[in-house]
Amino acid sequence: MAIVGKKFPNLSVNAMNDLGDTFKINVLEEAQKNNKKVLLFWYPKDFTFVCPTELHAFQAALGEFEKKNTMVIGASCDTAEVHFAWLSTAKDNGGIEGVTYPILADSNRNLASTLGILDITNEQYNEETGVVTVEGDNVTYRATYLIDEEGTVFHEGINHMPLGRNVNEYLRLIDAYTHVQEKGEVCPANWEEGKNAMTADRSGVASYLSAHAN
C-alpha cells in the first residue's frame, strides 16, 4: 500500500547507535520536531552481503545529506544488540564500524508490517492446529522513504534483496523536492540541481520541450 502523499506512520521503534545506546525513535516526530527531511532506508539483515555496502555508502554521503537538511536513519528487523555487534565489527571483516547514524531495530516488526515491506508469501492457516505458516524470511525488502519536514512521504521505493541502491538518486530527489518547495516549479525528467525546471502548465511544458528539443 503506497503512502506517498500521506503522513509517515506514527510509531516509536527501538534504535541503536554507534555508542551502544538503545533508545526510541519515532520517524514522524523526528521530521516534525527537528524541521528536517528524513531518509529512512530498510535493509534485510545484519551480517549479510549487499547490506554493509549500502550502510557504508549512506555513511560516506552523510555530510551531503546534512547539507540538505536531511537526517539519515537505517532500519532492519534485527535486535538492537545484533546491530551493536555489527557496528563493532571492522569494515574489512564485513562489519559497519564507522557508521554513525541511528539504525532502527524493528524486531517486533510493528513498523515493517504497517509499511507492508516484509518478505512473506503464501500465508496459510491450519484449522486443526491453529498455526499460521508463511514462506519467506519475514525480513524487509530494500525499502526507502523520503519524508518532508511536516512528516509527509514524498518518495518511496522498494528493491528486491539482491539490488543495492544508488545513494546519489536520493540526493537528487531531495534537491528536486526542495526546489519544488522553494520555487513552486516542477522538476522534469533527469532534472538535477542547477538545471532548468518548469511551471506546471501548458506553456511551461511547451517552452521547456522547445528549449530541450535535442
Task: Give the neighbour order of strands across the main sheet.
Answer: 2-1-5-4-3-8-9
Task: Kindly estimate the percentage of residues that lie in beta strands according to DSSP.
Answer: 15-25%
- Rg is 19 Å
Secondary structural class = alpha+beta
Strand segment count: 9
Number of helices: 7
Largest sheet: 7 strands, mixed
Alpha-carbon distance between the two ends: 38 Å
Tell the overall outline. globular
Mean pLDDT: 96
Q: In a nutshell, what does this entry contain?
A:
With 214 residues, this protein is an alpha+beta fold.
Features of the shown structure:
214 residues; two-stranded antiparallel sheet; 7 helices
Descriptive report:
The chain is of the alpha+beta class and 214 residues long. 31% of the residues lie in helices and 23% in strands. The protein is built from seven helices and nine strands, in the order ββαβααβαβαββββαα. The strands form two sheets. The chain has a seven-stranded mixed beta sheet with strand order 2-1-5-4-3-8-9. Strands 6-7 form a two-stranded antiparallel sheet. Strand 8 and strand 9 form a beta hairpin.
How is the topology of this model organized?
Blueprint (H helix, E strand, L loop, with lengths): L11 E5 L5 E5 H8 L2 E6 L7 H11 L1 H6 L2 E7 L3 H8 L15 E3 L4 H6 L5 E6 L4 E5 L6 E6 L5 E7 L7 H17 L18 H10 L3
Parallel strand pairs: 3-4, 4-5
Antiparallel strand pairs: 1-2, 1-5, 3-8, 6-7, 8-9
